[in-house]
Amino acid sequence: MPAAKKEVTPKIAVKRLINCFETANKEINEALGKKVPERELKARVKLFVGDAFRKCDVDIHDPSKEGLKKAMNECRINTEKMLGKKAAPIIKKHYAEMEEIIEKLPDDGELND
Q1: Cα separation, 72 vs 112, whole angstroms
Q2: What is the 3-state secondary structure (H, E, C) of 53-99?
Q3: Which has the closest alpha carbon to 33: 78, 85, 86?
Q4: Which pTM was predicted?
């Protein structure tokens, strides 16, 4: 019998969003020829993502599915404004990955925890 698939929860989605942004930022910095230390990159991303959640009035510790979508879109818009067209393919790739994760969440009102 195959192992049960772990259900995606809002907390897991936020963690994956942060990890995805870390990877995307690393790729973008490499494409721009910049070297950013790992620790600094993680701190920047955490601040960046947290700011997007606050701006959207979404609780980063217990977001709804719609709240995650809003905050993720805010992150995308802010990244595009900061980095321009060079970052577009990387943003598009990672945004699609995050959309897949968020779509696995139960719709708002169906969350049990």
Answers
A1: 23
A2: HHHCCCCCCCCCHHHHHHHHHHHHHHHHHHHHHHHHHHHHHHHHHHH
A3: 86
A4: 0.79
